[in-house]
């Protein structure tokens, strides 16, 4: 089992824990809008680190982003495997072609 699969399992296990004892449970208790805000915040921080941070800062923000993305997927009951399947579906398709197919 890879790291992201283990993380997905941990997030699922902690989802219904005591919010005072679990960060994951505390975000779930606050609802999807708070989870979405946190994901957006992490995206902004990753963007800033991409432009002006050190490599270590970007790595840390990328890890935060992945964590919060998996948490958001869990909140919507979407397995991370669905994201991987979508990436596999797109494999071999140019980004320009893929984007054009979505805008039709």
Low-confidence stretches: none
Please give the alpha-carbon distance between the first and last residues.
38 Å
The CATH architecture classification is Orthogonal Bundle
Total number of domains: 1
Please describe the biggest sheet, giving its number of strands, its sense, and whether it closes into a barrel: none
From the spread of the alpha carbons, the general shape counts as globular
What's the CATH H-level superfamily name? MazG-like
Keywords: Amino-acid biosynthesis, ATP-binding, Cytoplasm, Histidine biosynthesis, Hydrolase, Nucleotide-binding
EC number: 3.6.1.31
Family: Belongs to the PRA-PH family.
Main location: cytoplasm
Architecture overview:
The protein is mainly alpha-helical. The protein has a single domain, classed as Helix Hairpins, CATH 1.10.287. It contains six helices and no strands. It has helices spanning 3-14, 23-30, 32-52, 55-75, 80-90, 95-102. The longest helix is centred in the middle third of the chain and has 21 residues, at 32-52. It is globular and about 45 Å long. The protein starts with a helix and ends with a helix.
Concise synopsis of the structure shown:
Belongs to the PRA-PH family. With 104 residues, this protein is mainly α.
């Amino acid at each position: 089992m890879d790291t992201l699969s283990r993380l997905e399992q941990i997030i699922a296990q902690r989802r219904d824990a005591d919010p005072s004892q679990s960060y994951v449970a505390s975000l779930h208790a606050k609802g999807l809008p708070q989870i979405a805000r946190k994901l957006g915040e992490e995206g902004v921080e990753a963007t800033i680190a991409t432009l002006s941070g050190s490599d270590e800062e970007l790595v840390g923000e990328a890890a935060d982003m992945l964590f919060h993305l998996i948490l958001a997927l869990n909140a919507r009951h979407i397995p991370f495997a669905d994201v991987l399947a979508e990436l596999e579906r797109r494999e071999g398709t140019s980004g320009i072609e893929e984007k054009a197919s979505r805008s039709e």
